[in-house]
Design goal:
heterodimer; A: about 425 residues; mainly beta; four-stranded antiparallel β-sheet; 28 strands; about 15% helix; B: about 900 residues; mainly alpha; two-stranded parallel ribbon; SSU_processome_Utp14 (chain B); phosphoprotein (chain B); nucleus (chain B); U3 small nucleolar RNA-associated protein 14 (chain B)
């Protein structure tokens, strides 16, 4: 009589090293697992619920300003550094990791309205209502590390006087030009005290200006006559004007799709345009219940963050009609400026309550170093959620958010 | 002012000439006789026309001027002024006012009439001179215009010359005339200037160009001028500023649009990619270790100290110059030196003591001492296996050694030493070496012994079985009786064995017990039959032995005979089967060996006709379909043998009958396909072999339809389906209850019975019936004969369904396809899981993502890249390389 036993050859199953994983054989025959869909659905549901449980987007607030934060700029070359300017003329450099001020540049007489840093992160440009444009040397990273808070370079590298108040400033990507907006649009070089060129089209003042990061010679501005204008530096003339129903507060170019930009409008919506076809918006992003004050694209180009006068920060997909995330706290007042961090993992907001707030871009993301298995787990959960997001239960859980009452009421007609 | 006047005059004269030209020849014919003399005169005398004649001509000419020509002149005037000014004033200015050359000028000897002499001819050999002449001619006639003034001057001049030289004035007069006259003849309507004859009298670009004909660059210039002529436009007045700005803006916009559009393929690729990676381009900033080192700045105390020492100027200088100075710098304090020396001395003394001790120990000659020492050492390291755990440990160690031996085969002549010896030949070695080799082999045997023993115990059954089968295969004829006897023995043993019914588990349940008992009885019965059969066959074998014929021989020979005599139709299959007979025999032996196994697990098959005699056939059949086929052939052969020699068969008639039955049965199924025949019939057939064979010969292949009908003769599928459908329909729309007598009031009286059911009950019933009908009619499968569509809602399944088609999907199929395959690690191999779960955006925390950079994307590569992305990693790398190359190119 022959007895069949499970036989395993030692060659197959002997591990070479103690750390090696035991060999496991798996039969992937679908007939053996008929409940796979139900199982995965359940997992997706659990993942959605876990996401809700772990959703803790708020990392911390950075206080120090004594007036509302009016503008911010990120250091394109240094992840931890962010500049903020306030209405009282104070400019601060923050270390986000430690959430403290590293450096102060307190010279502006009036409100600081615009801040920007050069691509190499060495020079900071600020402008304000005191009709000056100031260039600062940014302290190098090592000084930031060493951490003795000081007015490290209290003297600006250069001060350029203008005739009118400046509303906004933006630096060209990988060039040494920057543009200021005010009564007109001026293009400056680092080394010249006079603008290299200036554009004027219409009589109203320009309130925001943004360079196209992919196409560095292209810039867009919005003016208080409800217009959005495109300029091309090579032909040194304005290119196109688009008049909207209401004023556009800010514009942001998609860093991964140089033809597209999104405009944050007073009418609570954001409008995504293709710069080549300005006849109609490609996408209207609705959800805010008050004017959208600032907008910034994620470096991945797949989503953007908006700050609104309704005291919330929202994150939209680049092609999504509604926001995927809303951030708010009881203490956060009108949001005047928002920025996505350079690694697309954090969001920083500056608001009327003189604070900068640091948020996670993905509310339930696990911070810190992940083990490979953890990583895989997260990926699997994400994939499951993405796959089953259309099914009613998962959809409900993923979409659900607690909103402040006024916003909820304003949102529900 | 003067020049202006002159120009004015010139224009006038030119106009005059113009008008002259068309009329010239006509007039010539008219006045040729009249003025021929005058003309001749002119030719002889020189350029001048008398002033009076000129005035007269002028008077005549205005009459000739026609109105049609006038407007043409108006246009020409402007253009003339504009164009003529340049060559007149700029190029020939100097010559015009510098008349020195003119004085020297001699009329060429071969001077000809202008009419004959053409510009082109001159151009061939010298353009430049001709041009000068041309110009001079022009100047000449300019000069003539103010003759009056000149005449006086000339006279004075003549007088002066006479006074100086004392020569007659005649000599000078001639000379002077030649000087002034650059044209051969004075200009007039009869004697027009050259340019009048050549063209319209203006100096065009062509005229200038002609001079450089044949020089490099001429062609291009001419081409350009032609193009300019063709497209020559009149300059428009500039547009108003707003319009200009607008145009400029639109142009700028178009330009920037075009620039942006070049990004499109790149953006498209990124959007369509299942995953975009942002974790790849880690720009560390430094490319070499040197670069990193040069950027290094000491921060901590230690680093600073180190760097101060390393970067000490003295040290650096010493390094550069000479090593000797390093020694001077390398100062050690006295304390340090002393302490280190002490330390070294201490270590040395310790070593020395240890050495001395070991020497002493080595000197001791007592073997027991050494043995004890060794044991001690072992004890120190291993310890005496006192308790179970230690013993186990030791065993483990031993096991490990053994395993190692098995893995490495160190003692099986694998070492270099052993191999060398083997190579040289063991016999040539001395005794010691051989002993060592033997010892090694022995050790190997010792170490691997356990393994073998284990193997033996596990596979003893196998090997014995194999042996048996081998034996049977080898010589079946001889072993047949033995095997039969053995089989019989085994069967008997199995029958006698009382297999214990399990006390627990499913088998211990009462009904299972009963079933087991029943089965066992059946098996016993079969076993007994088998034994009987074995005995009979044994007997037969003995008989055949007596007849000195081996079993197989008896089987085969008569069979062949029969085939030659009575088989009219021989199918290939049968032939093959006959060839297989030997093997078949072997197999039957095998089967007989295995009977003890089969008899335990035999079951009663209801489909097979239940003749008592058929038991054995079943037994045979159970061994497998192929076996049955072969065996049946064999047995039919035996049966045929029987029919040929009845006397012999009589002895074991019972057995032959038994054997025949399954054979016929099988033949029915496999060859004839006449399943409907009753058992009795088939038996009847079998009783007469020839009859059956004749039956076979008249066999016809049935059609496919027939076969199917026969195959599914028993079951009526349609009927069943209908029944099923009706059931489901009833379940989903249940039939209303039939109205019955209501219990309670009036039940016991006759009133209700008499009245019948109350009307409302009936009505209700009718309503319910109608409703049901309605519902049945409304069902989706009402008109579908072969379909059941359940209308019951499954709540559990509902949550896996969406209400509407989700947005990006265009059809239900696509959506369902998208969530069909599971993606989890349990359902997919590890290699695929990663790719299945990869998120849309892969980024690394803390890595700065730069904006997009332009790179060329061509469509072919794009497709390839996507394919590669889903595919292997290596390919991805390669494609990356290619993309990089493209970037570098662009």
């Amino acid at each position: 009589m022959k007895v069949k036993v499970i036989s395993r050859s030692t060659d197959e199953f002997t591990r070479e090293r103690g750390q090696d994983l035991q060999r496991v054989f798996h039969n992937f025959d679908p007939n053996l697992r008929t409940q796979e869909k139900a199982v995965e659905y359940q997992r997706a549901l659990n993942a959605a619920k876990l996401d809700k449980i772990f959703a803790r987007p708020f990392i911390g607030a950075m206080d120090g300003h004594i007036d509302a934060v009016s503008c911010m700029a990120k250091n394109p070359n240094y992840l931890k550094g962010i500049f903020s300017g306030s209405m009282d003329g104070d400019i601060r450099l923050w270390d986000i990791a430690n959430r403290r001020t590293v450096c102060r540049f307190p010279v502006h007489q009036g409100a600081v309205k615009g801040l920007t840093a050069s691509t190499d992160g060495r020079i900071l440009v600020s402008c304000g209502t005191d009709c000056t444009v100031r260039l600062w040397n940014v302290p190098v990273a090592t000084i930031m590390e060493s951490g003795n808070m000081s007015d490290c370079s209290s003297e600006p590298q250069a001060v350029y006087m203008g005739e009118n108040a400046y509303w906004a400033v933006d630096h060209q990507w990988s060039g040494d030009l920057f543009a200021t907006a005010g009564a007109q649009v001026d293009i400056w070089n680092h080394n010249r005290s006079q603008p290299v060129s200036s554009f004027k089209w219409g009589t109203d003042s320009v309130i925001s200006v943004r360079f196209n990061p992919g196409e560095p010679n292209l810039l867009a501005t919005s003016a208080s006559d409800r217009s959005i204008m495109l300029y091309d530096l090579r032909v040194s003339s304005p290119a196109r004007k688009l008049i909207m129903r209401t004023k556009t507060n800010c514009i942001s170019w998609n860093p991964m799709e140089p033809m597209n930009f999104t405009a944050a409008n007073e009418d609570c919506n954001c409008y995504s345009y293709d710069a080549r076809k300005l006849d109609e918006a490609k996408c209207v992003h609705k959800d805010h219940v008050s004017a959208v004050m600032d907008i910034d694209f994620s470096p991945t180009g797949r989503e953007f963050v908006t700050g609104s006068y309704d005291r919330t920060v929202r994150i939209f997909q680049y092609n999504g009609g509604h926001s995927r995330e809303i951030y708010h706290t009881k203490r956060m007042q009108r949001v005047f400026c928002v920025k996505f961090s350079c690694d697309a993992s954090y969001v920083i907001s500056g608001s009327d309550d003189t604070n900068l707030r640091l948020w996670k871009a993905k509310a339930s993301e696990q911070l810190g170093v992940l083990l490979p298995r953890e990583q895989r787990r997260h990926e699997y959960n994400e994939a499951l959620k993405k796959r089953y997001k259309h099914l009613p239960e998962v959809k409900r859980i993923v979409r659900h958010r607690h909103l402040p009452k006024p916003i909820y009421k304003a949102g529900v007609p | 002012m003067q020049s202006h006047k002159m120009i004015e005059k010139k224009r006038k004269s030119r106009d005059g000439k113009k008008h002259d030209r068309p009329q010239k020849f006509a007039r010539k014919s008219k006045f040729s006789k009249k003025r021929g003399k005058i003309e001749d005169d002119k030719r002889r005398t020189g350029p001048r026309l008398p002033q009076s004649l000129r005035i007269e001509l002028d008077r005549i000419n205005p009459n000739d001027q026609s109105g049609s020509e006038e407007d043409e002149e108006g246009i020409n005037d402007d253009v003339y002024e504009y164009e003529e000014g340049v060559p007149e004033e700029e190029s020939k200015k100097n010559r015009r006012f510098d008349s020195v050359e003119n004085y020297e000028y001699e009329l060429p000897k071969d001077f000809k009439d202008e009419n004959v002499d053409s510009d082109d001819d001159d151009d061939d050999f010298d353009g430049g001179e001709n041009k000068i002449a041309h110009h001079k001619g022009k100047k000449g006639h300019l000069d003539q215009l103010d003759d009056d003034v000149e005449d006086e001057d000339d006279e004075r001049h003549l007088r002066m010359l006479q006074g100086i030289t004392g020569m007659p004035s005649q000599a000078f007069q001639d000379r002077k005339k030649t000087k002034v006259v650059s044209e051969g003849y004075p200009e007039s309507e009869y004697n027009p200037t050259r340019d009048v004859l050549d063209g319209d009298g203006r100096i065009a670009i062509e005229d200038l160009l002609e001079s450089i004909q044949g020089k490099p660059g001429y062609r291009e210039l001419r081409k350009i001028t032609r193009q300019v002529e063709k497209k020559g436009k009149v300059l428009q007045a500039p547009l108003p500023k707003e319009d200009r700005d607008r145009l400029e803006r639109s142009a700028a916009y178009e330009q920037s649009k075009k620039d942006i559009t070049r990004w499109e393929p790149l953006v498209k690729r990124n959007r369509e990619a299942p995953t975009i990676m942002f974790d790849k381009d880690t720009d560390s900033g430094f490319s070499t270790i040197g670069a990193i080192a040069s950027e290094f700045e000491p921060r901590t105390e230690f680093e600073k100290k180190m760097s101060s020492l390393v970067n000490d100027d003295n040290v650096m200088a010493a390094h550069k110059e000479d090593g000797s100075r390093l020694l001077e710098l390398n100062k050690i304090s006295l304390e340090d030196y002393i302490s280190s020396r002490n330390h070294i001395a201490k270590m040395r003394s310790l070593l020395f003591r240890h050495e001395v001790k070991m020497k002493r120990v080595k000197k001791i000659k007592s073997k027991t001492y050494h043995r004890l020492l060794k044991k001690d050492r072992l004890k120190g390291s291993v310890g005496i296996p006192m308790d179970a755990e230690e013993a186990k440990e030791l065993a483990m160690k031993q096991e490990f050694k053994r395993a190692e031996e098995r893995m490495t085969l160190r003692h099986k002549n694998q070492s270099k030493w052993a191999q060398r010896i083997v190579k040289r030949g063991i016999d040539t070695q001395d005794e010691g070496t051989r002993a060592a080799m033997a010892e090694q082999l022995h050790q190997h045997a010792l170490l691997t012994r356990k393994m073998n023993s284990m193997k033996d115990s596990s596979s003893s059954d196998d090997s014995s079985d194999e042996e048996d089968s081998e034996n049977s295969d080898g010589s079946d004829e001889d072993k047949a009786p033995k095997l039969l006897a053995k089989a019989r023995e085994k069967t008997r043993r199995v029958l006698e064995e009382d297999d214990g019914v399990p006390d627990s588990g499913v088998l211990s349940l009462p009904f299972m017990k009963r079933a087991l008992k029943k089965r066992k009885e059946a098996a016993d019965e079969e076993g007994r039959l088998a034994i009987q059969e074995f005995e009979s066959s044994l007997k037969e074998l003995e008989d055949t032995d007596e007849a000195k014929i081996t079993k197989t021989g008896t089987v085969i020979e008569p069979k062949n005979k029969i085939r030659s005599s009575s088989y009219s139709s021989d199918s290939e299959a049968e032939l093959e089967a006959q060839e297989d007979i030997d093997i078949g025999l072997g197999r039957t032996d095998d089967m007989q060996n295995n009977i003890n196994v089969n008899s335990v697990s035999l079951y009663v098959d209801a489909d097979i006709p239940q003749d008592s005699v058929l038991k054995n056939s079943e037994l045979v059949k159970d061994l497998g379909p192929k076996m049955t086929y072969e065996v049946s052939i064999l047995q039919s052969n035996t049966w045929k043998k029987m029919s040929s020699s009845r006397n012999e068969v009589d002895t074991n008639g019972k057995r032959s009958q038994k054997v025949v039955e399954p054979a016929t049965h099988n033949q029915d199924i496999e060859f004839e396909g006449v399943g409907e025949d009753s058992d009795a019939d088939s038996e009847g057939q079998m009783l007469d072999g020839i009859l059956s064979s004749e039956h076979k010969s008249s066999y016809k292949l049935p059609s496919q339809a027939e076969l199917i009908r026969e195959a599914f003769a028993g079951d009526d599928v349609q009927e069943e389906f209908n029944k099923d459908k009706e059931e489901i329909m009833n379940l989903e729309n249940p039939e209303p209850e039939k109205p019955a007598q209501l219990p309670g009031w009036g039940q016991w009286t006759r009133v209700q019975k008499k009245k019948g059911l109350p009307s409302w009950v009936l009505e209700e019933h009718e309503n319910a019936k109608r409703k049901r009908e309605e519902a049945l009619r409304k069902r989706k499968d009402a008109h579908l004969k072969h379909v059941i569509i359940s209308e019951k809602l499954d709540k559990k399944a509902e949550k896996l369904l969406t209400g509407t088609l989700p947005y990006p999907f265009t059809s239900k199929e696509v959506f369902e396809q998208s969530i069909r395959m599971p993606i989890g690690p349990e359902f997919n191999p590890a290699t695929a899981v990663r790719a299945l779960n990869r998120p849309e955006v892969v980024k690394k925390q803390g890595l700065i993502i730069k904006p997009i950079r332009y790179e060329d994307v061509d469509s072919h590569e794009r497709g390839g890249e996507e394919r590669r992305k889903s595919g292997q990693k290596q390919k991805i790398k390669r494609s990356k390389g290619r993309v990089k190359a493209v970037v570098a190119k662009s």
